[in-house]
Amino acid sequence: GDKLDWPRLRKEKKASAVWTRWATGVVRRPWLSTVAALVVLVPLGVVAFTMQLGYTPSDSLNQSGEARAALTTLESHGVPTGVLTPIEVLIPAGQDADAIAGELRDLDGVFAVLTTEAWQRDGATLVQVLPTVETMTTDGRDVVENVQGAMDQFSGVRVGGSGALLIADINSTYGTFPLMLALIALITFVMLVRAFRSIVLALQAIVVNLLSIGAAYGVLVLVWQEGYGSEQIWGVAALGSVTTWVPLMTFAFLFGLSMDYQVFLLSRMREQYDETGSTSDAIVTGLGRIGRLVTCAALILFLAFMSMAAIPEVDVKVMATGMGAAILLDATIIRMLLVPALTAITGRWTWWLPSWAAKALFVAPSPAASAVLTSKSELVSTR
Can you name the CATH fold of 16-57+176-381? Predict the structure, then answer.
């Protein structure tokens, strides 16, 4: 019963004083708040466009143990780590295997080409190409593509191995990613327009979510692909790429979670606006009521993912770092700064839903207010 709420340390009749003051400051200086948020988010989003996908290279192995000792022995004898990821070339019957092997040896990035009679069946021959760099890296994929290009002139020759599998995996997984993103954004936009009875709010939600995801990708690139902090914090050198499946997982998790945060915040704003007709009052009251909830929930998730980053598996570290950074950025810079600032800038148009759109979505229309209620006296009254 009521004892579940004991001891009640906080009264819920009024919004949080701290978050109310914060929201009032954002509403008073919306352009400054927007610029401050974009100064962080836009550079990270730009960095995200340099992302390279791959698998974890051998350099990320623990600095001790049998695996590290074996790798060190190979390198000390002049054997490159690329031999750990051979490129397999299947030559069908009727083709000159020796001539093809000779052409493979002349390609850039090839350390050695191996073939034996044990790898021959019914006239077909399997040739192993040992690259100088691991095929899970960006440079290694270039070697695989060179091999594939060179083999195109020979009918029936097939190129396989972990590098070829990685290229096919990236193409199949991310080839239709822009289409999937557009479809998800469209469906989400329609649902949000119907829920909030506002075209502008729905559009803002989509844009800030994409900014949040782009910023999270930028953190992944800086920390793991470029190595800023990865070696100092986790003892792992720059990977040169981001684990293939991590961006997709980050998108799926973050888009859903950030939309939850957005719905919490905007729902309270919409309720307050319907009650008072004041945009600034809706922002201040909504953030004052929901700010504490969103930040506490985000902090719990952030700490959970940071604990996952302590696991020795590097792929898990990459995922945990991306998730943790995404949640932290989304719950602070996005929801607590950028969203209220944009809402204050759009003012009365924030709540606009024309009659034709309302009729199509079976909801009541929401015309823009006749004036923007952001006077100084109104802001003072919301304290």
Answer: Multidrug efflux transporter AcrB transmembrane fold (1.20.1640)
Predicted model pTM? 0.82
Domain boundaries defined on the chain:
16-57+176-381, 78-172
* Ramachandran class of 355: left when φ > 0, alpha when ψ lies in -120 to 50, beta otherwise: alpha
Torsion of Cα atoms, 300 then 311 then 254 then 261, to 10°: 0
Instruction: Tell me yes or no: is domain 78-172 CATH 2.60.200.30.
Output: no
Q: What is the pLDDT along the chain (383 residues), one digit of tens a residue?
A: 566 666 655 555 567 788 889 989 999 999 999 999 999 999 999 999 999 998 888 777 666 667 778 878 888 888 888 888 999 999 998 888 889 999 999 999 999 999 887 888 888 999 999 999 988 888 888 999 999 999 998 889 999 998 999 899 898 889 888 999 999 999 999 999 988 888 998 999 899 999 999 999 999 999 999 999 888 888 888 888 898 999 998 898 888 888 888 888 888 888 888 888 888 998 998 888 888 888 888 889 999 998 998 888 888 999 999 899 889 898 889 988 999 999 999 988 888 888 888 888 888 887 765 443 443 344 444 44
250: alpha, beta or left? (left if phi > 0; alpha if psi -120 to 50): alpha
Take residue 227 and report the two structure tokens written for it. 């190595």
